[in-house]
Amino acid sequence: LTGVYCSLYQPVEGRLGPQPVVLDHTSGFEGLLFVDDDLLGVIGHSNFSSIRATTCVYKGKWAYEVLISSQGLMQIGWCTLNCRFNQEEGVGDTPDSYAYDGNRVRKWNVTTTNYGKSWAAGDIVSCLVDLDEGTITFCLNGQSLGTAFTNIKMGPGVAYFPAISLSFKESVAFNFGSRPLRYPLIPQENLQDLLKAHKLLGYMKNVLSSSVSLQEDRLLEKDCSLWRLHGEPTVLITLAHIFNQFAPLMCKVYLVEDVLMNFLLGILEGGGSVDEHPLIQQLLDLFWLLMEDYEVNECLKQLMMSLLRAYRFSPIIPDLGFQIHYLRLTTAILHHEKSRKYLLNNFTFDVLRSVVFFYIKTPLRVKEAGLEELIPTTWWPTHFDKEGKDEREPADESADERLRRRAYERGCQRLKKRIEVVEELQVQILKLLLNNKDKTTGEASRYIFLNKFRKFLQENASNRGQHPTALCPPEYMVCFLHRLITAVRASWDEGNRKSPGSVSSEDDLASKANIIIDPAEIQTTSMDDLDEDEESGAAQRPFGAAAMGGALARPSWLSSPTLGRANRFLSTAAVSLMTPRRPLTQPEKVKVRTLAVEQRTEEDIEGSHGNDGLLLGRPLEEPDQPIADKSLLEIVDGIVMMYNLSVHQQLGKMVVVSDDVHEYAVALKDTEEKIARCPARRPDILEELQKSQKVFAEKLNHLSRRLAWINATIYSKDKMLDVYWLLCVCIRTIEHADNTGSLFAFCPEFYLNVAMNAYSALKNYFSPANSMEELPGYEETLTQLAAILAKHFADPRIVGTDIKDSLMQALASYVCYPQSLRAVERIPEEQRVAMMRNLLAPYEQRPWAQTNWILVRLWRGCGFGYRYTRLPHLLKTKPEDANLPSLQKPCPSLLLQRHMAELLSMDKDMAASFLNSVLNQLNWAFSEFIGMIQEIQQAAERPERNFVDTRQLKVCATCFDLSVSLLRVLEMTVTLVPEIFLDWSRPSAELLLRRLAQLLNQVLNRVTAEKNLFDRVVNLRLPGLESVDHYPILVAVTGILVRILVDGERQGISRAASVLLSDPCFQLHSIQHLLGEGGDSSSSSAAVTATTTATARPVIGSLGSSVAAPIPSAAGNTERKHFSLHPTSEEDLCPICYAHSISAIFKPCSHKSCKACINQHLMNNKDCFFCKATITGVEDYSKPATS
């Protein structure tokens, strides 16, 4: 390459654009990308995204470098301003853009040809453009790949920008010349600086490793690692001279990276712990002593940026050597207190928007991380139980499989150990940042960290959905969360060891969270304590104080109206994140003006005239205590918030890999079985099968290694314990907030969300690798969570609808799994009964579908033909997600059924209003369903293109499912407490029975009529209506009929039969259809009988006879009783139904109707039909005899 190429930083004629050159993240991009804080690194975040630099060139020779940090699909090169990119076309796909792609080893300029060599992670690509000759050349690691393009377009108005297009998750870092190019084709002046800096460093080393001996007047050699700053003035003066020359150079980025960083890394080369290298501390002291402040600041900032870049983009090798190397130097620098505070104040979370240092990137390709050497043997599950889940320890595992599994597990252990080294270093960095024992004056590191952390959370919480690039990516958050939990718990334990007054920390988790609470304590807590979750309170306080506080009544100011206001304001977000505290220097204690409780005024509480009021102080009874542990609690608060913001979703996303392994393993097993069955005469089929077997096996090899990495970094046992610890913290905080009596103490909403989400993560995301049962105190925690859900899903103190819904959903999925259902059964009896009472509240005033579903789950497995997990006609199809709560095996709770029966039989009014509301909702749901299938049927019969709105189908299926589940709740009630319908001494029993009969007849007539609407829609088999079928609804109806017509005592049976038969809608053929008798032999009825026969044949036989028998006696009597006064004229008929005679008169307005109509009306409404007057009583009415 002849001539000198300039980097884009050099102020030479021929370039246009700002200094420094960075990526144009405001207008020059297409697709979604994450751009680094220094605007030089970029990660693709959509299918194929492109971005260009801010500076262009139009004449001369120019070069820039790109560090490839993942070896995937990318096109790197030059483009003009006219190039228009999209998600399919990038750099090199348009006329005026030119690119090299080392992944496919090609060059691109609209067309493509082979060019160059293939690149790997860690390679450097140099992109050179010569605008005098009109050529573009690329180099790989300093080796020219030859001229790629000649005769490129030049002339007025044509200028070239550096540009790149990259696919999802690929990442690179650009160097436009702000640091030395790795393979420089650069002019001399920069080289002179480089040589000078190296020389000066050499002098410095020499000075540090020699000492002046006054006795012998000569210099002595000594080990420079033992050098101390307090020593000989001669040495210091010499060093000052060197620094005079050296300091200005240290403001240049490329010298910091090339000279200083490598020198410091060299000191740590020898291994050993970071503390064994005091020289770095001494050097940093020298920097602060002998350089101007602005020089040190710039130098440290650039040093950290270079370290960060190196940490982030260095390729992953099996022992993670690069990452460990850079993290150790970071730790060494942060050990130096002054530097640490400067960096915390001006760098961490400010320049550095995301928490890169705590992230361990996942290798996209197994090869580049050398996972093949670490895990030579791969393994995946090959034994599946009936539902397709992996078996943990299959009994029939062959010896070969066992060997492979063990070898794979050993490989995973090796990998885990290496990753743990990096994690340990990351935790050390955090511990340094959380240090509150700093020796110098000014704020302790922890407080600076706390303020920055608060701001970081605020940004991430407020920016959700607006600028995805400004956010910390969720995969970083996950790693940061785990390191932070480890560091906080370590600091906590350390604090406890030092202050003996606090509770000693045993090993079990709950006491690590150290949450021991005295209920009296909260009554004297100021607002500020409430928002900083209470965990510390009693834990760090000498015990006497708690006892003293207990004697006090609840202070009047806690229930004052101003606090009501404060509470409303607080509930918008965690207040601790919104109000910056006064910075407290270490020894200062918070002073509070102490007033007797009665004298506290509104101003004292809320603060006025610029003072902070009591809200920022402590209540009077609490003795002064250092505020240090509060800060840890605030960090815990932030951790909970982080989990809520993005960690939970990310944990859910990463499960995909293990799902993929599972799917491929099932496919591979299936293919192998097919190969075994393949007939010898069909070699063509066999060949195809073997091909797919090979593809599946390769994919599994790759995925199982990737899964090992993910299990070690995201789903390991320690991470599981962290999430479990978070769950315990949330549970304690909620329990605590709940203990305040009439009010719910302020507790951010996300605590409830995190408690529910953390539980579901532990249950669904961390299994098969780690199971929840192994967690310490697991059953107790489940019970505590069950108690919270049972108590608060209908808590009037919780008003937010979202949080109510999520509590209800959590409880609904909780009762679907045997372990968690047993936990609900373990909570104290009065709480269980209260929960059932809340579930049985009338359905009108609240969202009832979820609670109805909870009741159905408690019943499922006990009802008639109700032992199925999935509907019989759907068994052949594969469920989308077998882990869904609704697809769990039935696990009925007899205990909770007993509570329900007791409640309904004792409390007659509640029973009547509950059943009335269930019947109303059933009436509504089934009518809606019939209306919808009419519309669907009409749409399907139209001659033009059949198109039914999928949303409509979904709503239709939902109405059907609701009808079925409401029928099941009726069946449950009839079975558990038949007397509600059949004991006519109860006030509304007869009416309820009539309404039930009416609804059952309606349902039967609509579903069983021959060639009816229902049949036709079921036979259309529309996607989305799979669950709509004869079986579920007819079995539910049959369950109710069997219960009231077969299994009851004689009197009840005759009552039920007479009411059923006297209902105007009753049709005998629908009962025959249920029994599979009669001329009706449509396919659907055959299917129903086939499926019900197994479970219900004998019962149905007896049902037939019992319906037939009582007709003459029972039915005859009631018919006679009702129509004994055969009306002679229309005036004597009830004006509402025109079916019965007038038999009731209302007070006070004296309007009339039959008893059935008015009784049904009064269950929902107390106004008269006709005049809207409130009815106070109803009396019997008989027509006066005419003379």
TrEMBL record:
Its EC number is 2.3.2.27. It comes from the Eukaryota. It is found in: Cytoplasm. SUPFAM superfamilies: Concanavalin A-like lectins/glucanases (SSF49899), RING/U-box (SSF57850). GO terms for cellular component: cytoplasm. Keywords: Cytoplasm, Metal-binding, Methylation, Phosphoprotein, Transferase, Ubl conjugation, Ubl conjugation pathway, Zinc, Zinc-finger. Residues 599-609 have a biased composition (Basic and acidic residues). GO terms for biological process: protein ubiquitination; proteolysis involved in protein catabolic process. Pathway: Protein modification; protein ubiquitination. It catalyses: S-ubiquitinyl-[E2 ubiquitin-conjugating enzyme]-L-cysteine + [acceptor protein]-L-lysine = [E2 ubiquitin-conjugating enzyme]-L-cysteine + N(6)-ubiquitinyl-[acceptor protein]-L-lysine. Pfam families: SPRY, TPR_RNF123, zf-C3HC4_3. One of its GO terms (molecular function) is zinc ion binding. InterPro entries: B30.2/SPRY, B30.2/SPRY_sf, ConA-like_dom_sf, RNF123/RKP/RSPRY1, SPRY_dom, SPRY_RNF123, TPR_RNF123/RKP, Znf_RING. Residues 599-622 are annotated as: Disordered. Residues 1134-1172 form the RING-type domain. Its main location: cytoplasm. Residues 1-181 form the B30.2/SPRY domain. PROSITE patterns: B302_SPRY (PS50188), ZF_RING_2 (PS50089). Component of the KPC complex composed of RNF123/KPC1 and UBAC1/KPC2. Interacts with UBAC1 and CDKN1B via its N-terminal domain. Interacts with RIGI (via N-terminus) and IFIH1 (via N-terminus). This is E3 ubiquitin-protein ligase RNF123. It comes from Dicentrarchus labrax.
